[in-house]
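My current task is to audit a protein record that another person submitted. My question to you is simply how this chain folds and whether the tokens agree. This is what I was given:
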Amino acid sequence: MAYKYKGLVEPLKELSGMEEVLKLLQSNKMANVKVTNMVDACKGHFIYGLSEFTNLPTVVITYDEVSTKRIFEDLAALKGEEKVYTYPSRDILFYNADVHSMDITSARIRVIEALNNKEDITLIIPVQSLLNPLSPKATWQSYCKCIRVGEVINVAALQSNLVQIGYERVGSVESIGQFAVRGGIIDIYPPTMDEPYRIELWMMR
């Protein structure tokens, strides 16, 4: 396998016990492997190397938001930010107290969508987040709606559905989680997008 940072990855194979760890993981995906006495600064490097060697899905559970941020930055530098996700807890620890709650909700939904779409990502989760129960996968999928060009849309039903799943109806869309309906124009700002969508309708009579 050609590693992106071969000079960083290959020396890991020379570590004591590394060969044994790799054999266990490659022969049994459910193998229980314990690595001790590793300083925080090396964890991102080690996790990256392990994922490159085994080509297995990677989930990292951390003890708080600060360690989550540190490992995210390390792995994002190695794998690329588009391939590393964090699933923040509901409690605001690392962020300022006045941050809009939708920022955290958006980050959580982006992770759920990536997993639902079976994207190849590395997921970092603070242990607090594991204490927050989620709806079953089937419930999440039942609320997903795909709107295609040329499709006939029942505007009243769409509005009802958006409100039911937590969107806020406003006069003009300014932030995520909002939608607006003005005549034949519908603006929707999904929490997984950087900009809102605009849908223009041809009204049927």
Observations:
- Residues 87 and 125 are 5 Å apart (CA to CA).
- The beta strands are 58-62, 84-86, 122-126, 168-169, 178-182, 185-188, 197-200.
- Residues 93-99 have pLDDT under 50 and may be disordered.
